[in-house]
Amino acid sequence: MTQATDITPKLAEFEARIGRGEKIEPGDWMPDDYRKQLIRMISQHAHSEIVGMLPEGNYITRAPSLRRKMVLIAKVQDEGGHGQYLYHAAETLGISRDEMEQALLAGKAKYSSIFNYPTLNWADIGMIGWLVDGAAIKNQTMLAHCSYGPYSRAMVRICAEETFHQRQGKEMIVKYAQGTPNQRQMAQDALNRWWWPVLMMFGPHDSDSPNSEVLRRWGVKTQSNDTVRQLFLDEVVPELMAIGLQIPDPQLHFDAENKHWKHGPIDWAHFWQVVKGNGPMNKERLAARNQAHDNGAWVRDAVTAYASRK
Ligand code: BYC
Questions:
Q1: Closest Cα to atom 41, ligand 1: which residue?
Q2: Domains of the chain
Q3: Which residue among 4, 78, 135, 263 sits deepest, i.e. has the most Cβ atoms within 10 Å of its Cβ?
Q4: Which atom of ligand 1 is nearest to the CA of 111?
Q5: pLDDT tens track for 235-260
Q6: Is 252 helix (H, G, I), strand (E, B) or coil?
Q7: How far is CA 182 from CA 116, 172, 176, 190, 242, in A?
Q8: Is residue 133 lining ligand 1, measured as CB closer than 6 Å?
Q9: Ligand 1 atom with the shortest distance to the CA of 215
Q10: Which tens digit of pLDDT belongs to each residue from 73-124?
């Protein structure tokens, strides 16, 4: 925490800048806690993009047509690019790429809970595009307004690409929902498995979110976890219903007075198990990431050798 008395005016000026809607840039004075919170959040976000390549990457060789294969290759490549922007944004705060990478590979760093679930068939690829990328867009549109310049600018570009990701997923699911009984069943089964994990992506309820208070105060989170989850729900529920899919929540209902869709209770005990490393695919994801890192050693060696040539 910032305690020295001579720092108080700096803190006041920092908060005034945030109040005026100015962006904080890498060389600017910032409280230690602001720096630490941003490193935590941006590095977790970067890891999510990189680990998030795995569930879809597994399906590149199994795409049902050349068009779908080209689209999926482009999407997975985009996610790798998002990881790069975000690692760079975190580096501006004084952490090295190597430190972040080692924390991920050692299983010490967090990444989004959503990537610890299996992809069982091609309909999952559509559902990830529509719902997972759709949820990410809602969260990242909020972060595009955040107070830290490099994070905010990375979000603008990432959201533009995520919009394409979401549309290709929605296109696939709409086709399946209008297809043969088997295809409709695949879309429904994928929705049944992804629905609750997607709602968990937005993080715990506001009352159980320890980081929110300081993040809201310093303009990093411009909307709360529950507000962003609600925006997502209000958008996707009518769309999923319109194509005849059943949302697997018996308590889901429309609150006519407040004009919002309301979901039933989320299984937070399950969520925390996944976050702590005990989800269905945590160990496989970490092993695959470590294997990819080891397999890439020769590329890093070659680049280093080239860079240090006489
Ligand atoms: N998963 O105080 P809270 C993509 C942790 S990738 C795991 O509310 P905060 C894509 C949280 O870290 C886009 N952990 O936290 C890529 C904290 O623990 P620590 C992914 C979670 O930070 C490839 C604790 O719970 N998007 O779209 O204020 C293919 C308490 O929570 C989760 C991002 O990464 C979770 N879901 O708010 C396809 C968004 N939720 O760190 C698609 C960036 C919470 O104190 N991140 N935790 O030990 C954020 O916006 C915020 O970090 C969150 C959580 C809203 C997620």
A1: 40
A2: 22-309 (1.20.1260.10)
A3: 135
A4: 7
A5: 999 999 999 999 999 999 999 999 99
A6: coil
A7: 26, 14, 9, 12, 19
A8: yes
A9: 28
A10: 999 999 999 999 999 999 999 999 999 999 999 999 999 999 999 999 999 9
